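testing teh design pipeline on a random one, pls ignore if ur not involved
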């Protein structure tokens, strides 16, 4: 076995560095921000909403633990959307304060930066961590595969219904960030596992929009994931499904001094092809 171990690291330190003081100021000056919008997403449903560049958004545990399946697009160009796989490489497989979510090619820029995560789960005895990028959304196709049954309120379906009014469709739904979800890979068999969400009433996950965003969330029909959806112990987890709150805030202009919305990648090559 080779000992070689390396990760995605920039040749120029600045490329992935964030101005932590800037984001800490945004996160801590809560009394100076103005509430733009707030709403509740009921159980087993989805909703999409805009967050403008320079605004903050919180996903809030309003009753009790509940997992949120999150998608994000550029508000004005939905081809630019969140890229879970590259975010895992540039950031981590579970994200928290200070991590960013990156967009797909050919854009590859930070779409949002996480400013405040009250969960602070760390790593547990099984290697489980919170706010998951290893997995993806539940969907009716895998449900049919595993159970033979049809179910219309999987996260994929909830997100599909949520984005239709914004001119998007099922094909625009993409791999998610599972907010408030604890996951890991088993040490012996390298299999994906999930655990009950540790979130409690009042917990929140807050981010700063680096570009104009369309965000969407599904309140997972698995609820807090304390009851298996599949397998021999499966049961209907509707008793552990809870609504989630969303709050959008505008911080005062002076807190945004010096910040600039990031530009898409400036790679202008032709992938090795000559101009025809
Ligand atoms: Zn789900």
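output:
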């Amino acid at each position: 076995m080779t000992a070689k171990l390396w990760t995605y690291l920039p040749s120029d330190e600045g490329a992935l560095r964030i101005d932590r003081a800037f984001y800490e100021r945004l996160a801590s000056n809560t009394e100076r921000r103005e509430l733009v919008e707030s709403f509740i997403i009921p159980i087993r449903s989805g909703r999409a909403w805009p967050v403008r560049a320079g605004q903050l958004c919180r996903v809030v545990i309003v009753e009790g633990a509940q997992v949120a399946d999150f998608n994000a697009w550029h508000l004005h160009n939905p081809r630019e959307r969140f890229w879970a796989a590259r975010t895992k490489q540039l950031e981590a497989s579970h994200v928290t304060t200070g991590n960013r979510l990156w967009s797909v090619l050919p854009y590859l820029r930070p779409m949002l930066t996480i400013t405040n995560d009250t969960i602070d789960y760390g790593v547990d005895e099984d290697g489980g961590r919170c706010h998951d990028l290893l997995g993806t959304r539940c969907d009716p196709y895998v449900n049919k595969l595993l159970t033979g049954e049809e179910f219309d309120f999987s996260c994929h379906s909830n997100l599909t219904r949520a984005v239709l009014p914004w001119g998007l469709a099922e094909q625009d739904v993409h791999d998610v960030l599972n907010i408030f979800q604890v996951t890991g890979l088993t040490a012996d068999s390298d299999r994906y596992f999930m655990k009950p969400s540790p979130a409690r009433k009042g917990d929140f996950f807050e981010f700063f929009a680096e570009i104009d965003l369309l965000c969407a969330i599904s309140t997972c029909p698995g609820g807090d994931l304390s009851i298996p959806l599949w397998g021999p112990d499966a049961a209907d987890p509707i008793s552990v499904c809870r609504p989630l709150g969303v709050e959008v805030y505008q911080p005062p202009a002076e807190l945004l001094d010096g910040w600039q919305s990031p530009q898409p990648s400036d790679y202008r090559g032709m992938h090795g092809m000559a101009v025809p």
